[in-house]
Design brief:
It is found in: Secreted. The chain is about 20% helix and about 25% strand. It is an alpha+beta fold and about 500 residues long.
Length: about 500
């Protein structure tokens, strides 16, 4: 303990010092450091620097947490900015303010107000010496993963680092993004396919195997809730590539839809696929290389970015771009369009026939909290979070690209059918990813609806027709974009 002054001397020096500083300084106007109590009361500050300064000395400071504290006599005024050990080390008296306890973590002591992040929750050291943590439901939940893997649910779960630290609310809000079409759209008259009822379809099918190189690599939607745009662009791209027999292989731009299809749409905050197909028909879009995706993170505005591509009519329903590509490295700004949508039968056999003859289709599905930890197997929603508070049990709507179907044998000897789909909200490793794709997508299997009344009921299929205008192919009417609604 360093006692340089007697108390009468101290108060005399203080009086002289205050009379010499008539103007109120920034330090005098600043709030005190210990209004809620002393943080890190056991820390060595004045003692560590052997600093006890007489009177007022604005240079007599020591770093203190996220600010500075003082070891001069002036600090001991009504509004104190003294270091925690000033009173005991310099004056030899107990602190006149409440001492806040620190918190222990990992064998170390942390001062009051210190913070750390536990997955998606911020924990703060409170004045009572305990960590006060937020209670958000996290997108990655270790208990949920363990429960799924222990149970007999037919699929495996895993922890994905790119989702770590996100709340479940953020996952639903930023990683999905499809709004269900209105009843008027979902109740369109069905168009029956010309199909032999006795025709036998294969037990397994994958569009990428039938049309190698023509089922294009999907893009990662990042934290943009734009699955409505990504899945629409992906399915339309595949259909154009397949039915032009590879003469045209455009990867259509989801950013063009996100930024320009703004009527009753919310861009990176969600949108409707029926509106996306309407925009493709009436306005058309360019390729992703011409108009690349830039709304990867959480944008404050609904569309994320202003529209940078316009087109004009050239007659007979065709459109021509009136602006250059936003990407200056690409010069081709050709517009691709589709024709009006119509509804197919909800017969899964007809859907399978459509997929096998014309290429990938688009599906709307209800997504639950366990969707984001899917790794392998036939996915279906599990009840493992049923005992948790309601904010741990969330769901939203997502649209995906269906590329095939298959079946597996369960341990009980039953045949379990599934759809093969690509979910653009996910980025884990997968079994048969193209080499250039890295971890930007996942091919995952959805339990087929009629195998269980609890999962993935298939209904309401919409189709549009794609026009091919480039010679020598000539005009053609091709199916584009069947929409399956998969509901849990």
């Amino acid at each position: 303990m360093r006692l340089l002054w007697t108390l009468p001397t101290l108060w005399l020096l203080a009086a002289e010092d205050l009379s010499a500083h008539r103007a109120r300084t920034r330090r005098e106007l600043a709030p005190g450091l210990h209004e809620r109590g002393i943080r890190d009361a056991g820390g060595s500050y004045c003692e560590r620097n052997d600093a006890c300064c007489a009177g007022r000395d604005d240079a007599c400071t020591v770093p203190y947490l996220d600010t500075i504290c003082y070891c001069d006599l002036f600090c001991n005024r009504t509004v104190s900015d003294c270091c925690p050990d000033f009173w005991e080390y310099c004056l030899g008296i107990p602190p006149p303010v409440v001492v806040l306890k620190g918190c222990d973590r990992g064998g170390q002591k942390y001062p009051t107000g210190a913070t750390y992040r536990e997955n998606c929750n911020l924990c703060t050291c409170s004045g009572n010496g305990k960590w006060d943590c937020e209670q958000h439901a996290c997108l990655i939940d270790g208990e949920m993963i363990d429960a799924i893997n222990r149970g007999n649910y037919g699929w495996r779960a895993a922890n994905y680092s790119h989702f770590w630290g996100m709340t479940l609310d953020e996952g639903i809000r930023y990683r999905l993004g499809t709004i269900k079409p209105p009843p008027l759209v979902m109740h369109m008259n069905e168009l029956q396919m010309n199909m032999d009822t006795n025709e036998q379809l294969p037990s397994h099918f994958n569009a990428a195997d039938k049309w190698p190189g023509l089922v294009l690599e999907p893009l990662d939607q990042g934290n943009c809730a734009g699955s409505w745009a990504f899945s629409t662009a992906a399915v339309a791209s595949d259909r154009i590539s397949i039915h032009s027999m590879g003469h045209m292989t455009p990867a259509l731009s989801p950013q063009n839809l996100i930024s320009c299809d703004t009527r009753n749409q919310q861009g990176c905050s969600g949108g409707r696929i029926d509106r996306a197909w309407w925009y493709l028909r009436r306005r058309g879009v360019v390729t992703d290389s011409c108009y690349p995706f830039t709304s990867r993170e959480k944008d404050s505005s609904p569309a994320g970015r202003p529209c940078m591509m316009q087109s004009r009519s050239t007659g007979r329903g065709k459109r021509q771009a009136t602006q250059r590509c936003p990407n200056p490295q690409t010069h081709s700004n050709e517009i691709y369009q589709s024709t009006p949508a119509y509804r197919l039968s909800s017969s899964e056999k007809e859907i399978m026939k459509e997929l096998m003859e014309n290429g990938p289709v688009q599906a709307i599905m209800e997504v639950h909290e366990d969707f984001f930890v899917y790794k392998s197997g036939v996915y279906r929603h599990t009840p493992v979070m049923a005992g948790k508070p309601e904010h741990h049990r969330r769901h939203g709507t997502h649209s995906v690209k269906i590329t095939g179907w298959g079946e597996v044998r369960t341990p009980q000897g039953q045949t379990q059918k599934y759809w093969v789909s690509i979910a653009l909200a996910m980025k884990p490793l997968c079994n048969r990813c193209p080499p250039a794709l890295g971890a930007a997508w996942v091919r995952w299997r959805v339990m087929r609806g009629l195998a269980s009344r609890r999962c993935c009921l298939v209904s309401r299929v919409l189709v549009t027709l794609q026009r091919c205008h480039q010679p020598p192919l000539g005009p053609c009417a091709l199916s584009v974009g069947p929409v399956l609604e998969l509901r849990s």
